[in-house]
From TrEMBL:
<dbReference type="InterPro" id="IPR002933">
    <property type="entry name" value="Peptidase_M20"/>
</dbReference>
<dbReference type="InterPro" id="IPR017439">
    <property type="entry name" value="Amidohydrolase"/>
</dbReference>
<feature type="binding site">
    <location>
        <position position="206"/>
    </location>
    <ligand>
        <name>Mn(2+)</name>
    </ligand>
</feature>
<feature type="binding site">
    <location>
        <position position="416"/>
    </location>
    <ligand>
        <name>Mn(2+)</name>
    </ligand>
</feature>
<feature type="signal peptide">
    <location>
        <begin position="1"/>
        <end position="29"/>
    </location>
</feature>
<protein>
    <submittedName>
        <fullName>Amidohydrolase</fullName>
    </submittedName>
</protein>
<dbReference type="Pfam" id="PF01546">
    <property type="entry name" value="Peptidase_M20"/>
</dbReference>
<dbReference type="GO" id="GO:0046872">
    <property type="term" value="F:metal ion binding"/>
</dbReference>
<keyword id="KW-0732">Signal</keyword>
<dbReference type="InterPro" id="IPR011650">
    <property type="entry name" value="Peptidase_M20_dimer"/>
</dbReference>
<dbReference type="Pfam" id="PF07687">
    <property type="entry name" value="M20_dimer"/>
</dbReference>
<dbReference type="InterPro" id="IPR036264">
    <property type="entry name" value="Bact_exopeptidase_dim_dom"/>
</dbReference>
<feature type="binding site">
    <location>
        <position position="147"/>
    </location>
    <ligand>
        <name>Mn(2+)</name>
    </ligand>
</feature>
<feature type="binding site">
    <location>
        <position position="181"/>
    </location>
    <ligand>
        <name>Mn(2+)</name>
    </ligand>
</feature>
<feature type="domain" description="Peptidase M20 dimerisation">
    <location>
        <begin position="227"/>
        <end position="317"/>
    </location>
</feature>
<keyword id="KW-0479">Metal-binding</keyword>
<keyword id="KW-0378">Hydrolase</keyword>
């Protein structure tokens, strides 16, 4: 970064957004101007090919939650090369990289590393063919949630910030988290903030099926609380031709799956969000055998805690009622309230959106409605709240109308689909530009 840029920064007058700055911030001036924009743009275009190569490598080598040793190893090595002090093994396969650059706020940037147990069907030349053992069974593995993009953007942001070191001060805390569901609580259990400090600011992002030139920020609660259930219905097995000598757990499981939806449609307050979905049923081995167990697993999502309590109680009561109705042995019923929702600080959301709008096309950075997904980044926010978690799109803008809605929903496969296929370069460009802007905006010299 040139001296001219620095001296220009020094002259940058205080602008309105600073009035919103939280007290933790010693940041003195907003450096997000045209010069910053062109510096970031040229650094990004100079390095984008390398970052796409990193992305494709992560994509081709996915690892399941808490098994991300290869990914973590690459991230640790890269951060060390950039001058970060790296501590591995925080939350099992997680790691923390610290870079001190003068007196200033402690700013956390977080990426998740895990992939999912499903078979990729994108047909890309860098598609995953990885298979692994998962809970005793062989499974394919795919980066179907875009965490490969998160890791590439994370490393690209670290590199960009190191290059722009003269423009900001404070300490960067780069957190690579395992397992998007459960990894953050493991890092908290390892006392991440006791060891490295409680962040003054936190930023994270998630990619998803919108246009790759867009960034969406939700002010306040941005996603849902998550719970789940795992129920084993115990019956009495026997010959398919003599059902009266059995208690059929497949009948029980089938009734359960259907009756669950009446908890949503008849018990949940109509105006509130809540979802129950069954994602896995396992039972039986042959058409003429009534098995003795059937296992049903599912997920529950909600925005308001009282709605969650109602839904989870409904799941449990429905399972118990099905057992009673069948006169079956007790079921093994596990219903859990898991992930907490992510809340974005409203003032920091405004401030971040304003800054990003100066660097990315202003009409492509906008406030959006909450999503129904979940994400355990919320666990970190039990220790601090001054944080923004934003979304970045991954697909060709021509696939969306002017409101951002897909023209054909089947052409923009979402997260967890075997066809989920971000367009690497523009997705990473938008991600690194947005994240670098968010960070420098609160660490300006
Ligand atoms: Zn994810
Ligand atoms: Zn996911």
């Amino acid at each position: 970064m040139s001296q001219t840029f620095l001296s220009r920064l020094a002259r940058t007058s205080l602008c309105g957004v600073l009035a919103l700055a939280p007290l933790a911030a010693p940041a003195s001036a907003a450096p997000i101007n045209d010069k910053f924009k062109s510096n970031v743009a040229s650094f990004v275009s100079e390095h984008i090919d390398d970052w796409v190569a990193v992305y494709k490598d992560f994509h081709a080598h996915p690892e399941l939650g808490l098994e991300e040793t290869r990914s973590a190893g690459i991230i640790a090595a890269e951060l060390r090369t950039l001058g970060f002090e790296v501590t591995e093994g925080i939350g099992q396969t997680g790691l923390v990289g610290i870079l001190r650059n003068g007196k200033g706020p402690l700013v956390m940037v977080r990426a998740d590393m895990d992939a999912l147990p499903l078979q990729e069907k994108t047909g890309l030349d860098y598609a995953s063919t990885v298979q692994t053992d998962w809970r005793g069974e062989n499974t394919y593995v795919m980066h179907a949630c875009g965490h490969d993009a998160h890791m590439a953007i994370f490393l690209a942001t670290a590199q960009t910030l190191v290059d722009m070191k003269k423009d900001w001060k404070g300490t960067l805390m780069f957190v690579a988290q395992p397992a998007e569901e459960g990894g953050a609580s493991k890092m908290m259990a390892d006392d991440i903030f006791g060891k490295f400090g409680v962040p003054d600011y936190g930023f994270a992002l998630h990619v998803g099926p919108s246009a790759y030139d867009t960034v969406q920020i939700v002010k306040g609660q941005m996603n849902s609380f998550a719970g789940g259930f795992d129920i084993v219905f115990n019956g009495i097995g026997g010959h398919g031709s003599r059902p009266s000598t059995t208690i059929d757990p497949i009948m029980m499981a089938s009734k359960f799956v259907v009756d669950l939806q009446s908890v949503v449609s008849r018990e949940k307050p109509e105006q509130e969000f809540g979802v129950i979905s069954v994602g896995a049923i396992q039972a039986g081995s042959a058409g003429n055998i009534i098995p003795d167990t059937a296992r049903v697993r599912g997920t529950v999502r909600w925005y308001k805690p009282a709605v969650g309590e109602k839904l989870l109680a409904g799941v449990k009561r429905t399972a118990e009622a099905i057992v009673a109705m069948a006169g079956a042995p007790d079921a093994e019923i596990s219903v859990r309230s898991g992930g907490t929702a992510v809340f974005n600080d409203p003032d920091l959301s405004e401030k971040t959106l304003t800054a990003m709008s100066k660097v990315l096309p202003a009409d492509k950075v906008y406030f959006a409605a909450p999503t129904t997904g979940s994400e355990d980044y919320g666990e970190f926010l039990k220790a601090f709240s001054n944080s923004v978690y934003f979304r970045v799109g991954v697909y060709d803008p021509a696939l969306f109308d002017e409101t951002g809605a897909p023209l054909d929903v089947l052409k923009v496969p979402g997260n967890h689909s075997p066809f989920f296929a971000p367009v690497p370069a523009p997705t990473i460009e938008t991600g690194v530009t947005a994240m670098t802007t968010a960070v420098v905006n609160v660490m300006a010299k």
